Amino acid sequence: MKSIHLNLRNLSQLALAGIFLAAFTLASCNKKDDDTTDPGGGDNPPTDNPMPQMGSGTLVAIKTQNITSTPIGDVTTTIGLGVAVFSDDAYNSFTDAGTVELKGNALTIHSNNNYAFTPSLTNPTRIDLSGDITWYVSGNGNIPSFTHTVNTAFPSVGAVTSSSDVSKSGYTLTVASVNNADSVYFQVEVC
Fold first, then answer.
1. Does residue 130 come out as left (phi exceeding 0), alpha (psi in the -120 to 50 range) or beta?
2. CA gap 161, 169 in Å, rounded
3. What is the DSSP letter of 37?
């Protein structure tokens, strides 16, 4: 039997941010059980999955938890990151939006005008994403200045309750609970 370890530290920050950006983008819609028709009397039937409208920016707060088994018990490391992009041409290219902050922590603008939080020696666990999430954008060019606060709780997952042994015939991962989420993504590393 092989042992399973949940381990995110081997991913680069950019790859991790990309994975979670895609995960939150794909898992952020709620299914609407509404059978109403187009109020304008059109022939278009309602859809189960409405398409979000493209805006001028995407701001993503990412909270990850890495559970590491040690001889003295499991150690949970919580990491908070932020990424952002802005565009005035339907995301064909990214635009400089000035200063971007997540909960008072400045994100670094990169050469292609994407923003990401860069950890430092004085802030190794990244951004504390407990409580309200407040974004500040100073604005630049066609991107206006704004502040936006989100007070929705992050999804949380209880302890993994399934075995750590994986067999060739398959594996089912089970957890004690899932809160504030309609889906959860796990990375499983088989050693």
1. beta
2. 19
3. P
8 A C-beta contact, residue 81 and residue 126 = yes
- How many angstroms separate the CA atoms of 175 and 170, rounded? 17
Residue in 142, 164, 187, 191 with CA at minimum distance from that of residue 23: 187
How many CB atoms within 10 Å of residue 25? 12
Q: Model confidence over 73-110: pLDDT tens digits?
A: 888 888 889 999 999 888 889 999 999 999 999 999 99
pLDDT at residue 174 is higher than 70: yes
CB 16 within 8 A of CB 9: no
Neighbours of 138 (CB within 10 A): 13
Whole-number pLDDT of residue 97: 95
Answer whether 36's CB lies under 8 Å from 50's CB: no
Is-contact 114 142, C-beta < 8 A? Answer: no
Q: Are 12 and 18 in contact (CB under 8 A)?
A: no
- What is the per-residue pLDDT for 43? 56
> 23: helix, coil or strand?
helix
Question: What pLDDT, in 10s, does the model give residues 102-125?
Answer: 999 999 999 999 999 977 788 776
